[in-house]
Amino acid sequence: MQIVIVGGGTAGWLAGMMISSRHPNHDVTVIESSKIGVIGVGESTTGLLTDILNNHIWDFGCDHNEFIIETGASLKYAIKHKGWTPDIDDYYIGPIDGSFTREHGPDILFAYGMKHLPKKDLIKVSQTGSWIHKGMTDFNKHTHSFNNMTHAMHVDAHLVGQYFKKVTLRKPNTKHIDAKVVDALLNEKGSIKEIVLEDGTKIAGDFFIDCTGFARLLISKMPGNEWISYQDHLPVNAAIPFHLDYEEDELPDPYTTAWAQDNGWMWQIPLMDRKGCGYVFSDEFTTPDQAHDEIEKRLGKKINAQRPLKFTTGRQKTHWINNCLSIGLSTAFVEPLEATSIHSTVVMIKNFAFDYLQNTLEGTLNTGSIRRYNDRAKNMFDDFKDFLVMHYMGGRTDTEFWRYINSGVTRTEYVDELLEMSKHRMLNQHDFKKYYGSAGWPLYSYVIEGINKFGPNVAKDALSLEVPGFNNDFEAAVENDYIKKQQDWSEELKDCYSWSEFVHLFRKVRRDRGLSSI
């Protein structure tokens, strides 16, 4: 088949790389215009991108260390959430992996941590959280490789796209056309037969993938195309991106920061060379100029902001229509919180390339496959919507924006159920939807505890259910098991670089290659 991907960037080149590797019998053309800029202010990923870089899913030809060197990416072990409760100076850190008993029902170690540890120390019951606590990485000094790849990344989206472009174009069945696509022509059955370039050239294909971002150039032409808005539940709809330089000798943090503000929240993505930042807000409650002034006042310094971005949270009603599949921002945007953008892009490409793309067009375009793929994508984005809504439920009422949120109008039925259950018992993995790429209990647990929504006795009750006649001996057993796990993690890290050593090592390599001014 001739597969045509319209749009480059992270989504387009990831799609090109994964499809061309998995299906070498198909010819893949990526059409990307160098005239269309890409914002590279900073973005956060999840462990699924790490799987790709380490060739866990498939040998795509990536090199994890080279990726860090060439893109200036840094490691991410968690997300620090600050100001999401009435105590605006309060914070909690949610590790990306959850407790090591996260698959238990209930999660014994998490309950033990809730009962015995201050909220800010709860990270210690997770592996990546313990690395933060110890100031360590799992990058081995002898092998110069990672021991287990239990991390995500902080990335510059523009440089990430360029890296995957390089890897993709090594494949013999791929090619790149530098041009702007202006139209898509459909046949009488409602499928795309050709796309039209700016100079009038027409490119034919069998299957087309829309990676044109918010333009949604292809999917918007398809019959039955419809946008499902999440605005009632996720009211932020604008962002001001900007960069912050590091102070002298400042190191990037091993976590993303999501810092709640008067009318939304600010992201801080600590890249190797600088912080990529942005203020995400609702323009129903403030203007871009007011938001700009607010963030400068909060930071205590001037910022050189890029032009404000406007977006609508939501998803396509149907992600795959006939011979057109939408990927990345062209198919959904569930606001930047919790790194769902690149994460969902990886999930959707992997699902398509590994489960639904076949050797023939007829085999690919069967009704059952299309329906099942669309159901999986719809359920994933609706699940992400619930997960993000939960973050806002901390009870702030100090501004009009937060009073609107706290009135309950943005809550979903599923979030209501989780909040009600959390008053009375520990939740566990069985209370959440589970699928490839799901958030689930490991991530929800830290959010619900972080915004103080568990009832006062749920941890004690959860522990008492584990054995008849709950007593301190059981607590001791849990503590001993936890200490043993900590010892195992410490043993694993004994030949590894500290966080400071790791950063200085990769900064030096980048500087020696002329890639960084630090």
Give structural notes:
The mean pLDDT is 94. Strands 6-5-16-17-18-15-19 form a 7-stranded mixed β-sheet, with helices on both faces. A 6-stranded mixed β-sheet has the order 9-2-1-13-22-21. A 3-stranded antiparallel β-sheet has the order 3-8-4. It is 36% helix and 20% strand. Strand 10 and strand 11 form a beta hairpin. The two termini are 47 Å apart. The chain is α+β, with helices and mostly antiparallel strands and 518 residues long.
In short:
The protein has 518 residues and is of the alpha+beta class. The chain is built from 16 helices and 24 strands.
Q: Which of globular, elongated, flat, extended, rod-shaped describes the shape?
A: globular
Structural class estimated from helices and strands: alpha+beta
How many strand units? 24
Low-confidence stretches: none
Beta content: 15-25%
**DSSP summary: helix tally:** 16
Q: State the strand order across the main sheet.
A: 6-5-16-17-18-15-19
Question: Over all CA atoms, what is the radius of gyration?
Answer: 23 Å
| Largest sheet entry | 7 strands, mixed
Question: How far apart lie the N and C ends?
Answer: 47 Å
Mean pLDDT: 94
Please bin the fraction of helical residues: 25-40%
